[in-house]
Amino acid sequence: DVQLQAFGGGLVQTGGFLRLSCEASGFTFDDDAIGWFRQAPGKEREGVSCISSSDGYTYYADSVKGRFTISSDNAKNTVYLQMHSLKPEDTAVYYCAADVGPLRGSAQCRLHEVTASVDYDYWGQGTLVTVSS
User: Fold this and answer.
1) Does 101 score more than 90 pLDDT?
2) What is the pLDDT of residue 6?
3) Phi-psi category of 85—alpha, beta or left, where left has phi over 0 and alpha has psi -120 to 50?
4) Strand-pair partners of 92
5) What are phi and psi of 130, to 5 degrees?
6) Alpha-carbon distance 66 to 2, whole Å?
7) What are the pLDDT digits (tens) for 32-53?
């Protein structure tokens, strides 16, 4: 069975740093897309970032561009989200998701540029990030 485990959340002060990890099992990274989403209380889910496991294509939401960095360690089937200069508005439950096709990973990531509703095949449980002011 495919499983995604997200962890690394916690409580941090404004301006702080956290690194989230998303470990995938049940499939091996090939030409897939791994995305990070977040959902704050009372708000809609937001696509934060995406990476293509084959060519490293990345997407970032405008709200995190320049502060967050997504990376993939294909040997470990793990995707990371480094979050710098955290703000209280980054407070949310963060989820990782994987899409294994039929779209190529980069094509899946590019969907985030045109629509807020991007479907993924598999979802992990969330990890809570709280940024105090």
Assistant:
1) no
2) 96
3) left
4) 129
5) -125, 125
6) 31
7) 999 999 999 999 999 999 999 9
Per-residue pLDDT for 57 more than 90? Answer: yes
End-to-end CA distance of the chain: 40
Q: Name the token pair of 96.
A: 């990782």
Spatial separation of the C-alpha atoms in residues 120 and 44, rounded to whole Å:
16
Who's near 133: CB < 8 A, 6+ residues apart?
14, 88
**pLDDT at residue 108 is higher than 90:** yes
Measured distance CA(1)–CA(120) in Å, rounded: 16
Q: What are the tokens at 70? A: 């997504």
Determine the 3-state secondary structure of 25 from DSSP.
strand
Contact 61, 48 (CB under 8 A): yes
The CA distances from residue 83 to 20, 55, 75, 89, 123, in Å, are: 8, 22, 22, 13, 20
Pairing label, strands 68-73, 58-60: unpaired
Nearest to 125 by CA among 20, 55, 26, 53: 20
Q: Residue 122's closest CA among 43, 45, 24?
A: 24
The distance of Cα 77 from the centroid of its chain, to the nearest Å, equals 14
